[in-house]
Amino acid sequence: MPPDPGVLTAHCDGAARGNPGPAGYGAVLTDERGRIVAEIAEGIGVATNNVAEYRAAIAALERARDLGAKRLLLRSDSRLLIQQLKGEWRVKNPTLIRLHTEARKLVGAFDRVSFEHVRRELNKDADRLANRGVDAWLAVNSYDAPTPDPDLFG
Q: What CATH number was assigned to the domain covering residues 7-137?
């Protein structure tokens, strides 16, 4: 029996070099047999790691919707992202509230979306793509990290 094109799994990850710092996200979408149906890597500029994690989830949800998925298992190594998307943790940061609202609206396009926290070592492909996104952004943008205050790190 061929895999159901309406059932996908998305591994997503965000990366920020510094917090905030140059950031990007990555996602790998697979079918029921584990075959890759899409990969996403994008740099997003200077952002926090949590913003990058949310942007990864949003990109994965959008791509899964565009591929015609009806059911999605979204996996991430960000406990904050997963717990907030499940509704088990409150979202307090104004930027994350906006991104959370956007993600939850996308969830409505599916018959079912499940969220699962995975260990970092089980999310390596998405991590690789997130870092590729950061590298791509840095390749065309200059970024000087803020100089630490010597009074703080004397």
A: 3.30.420.10
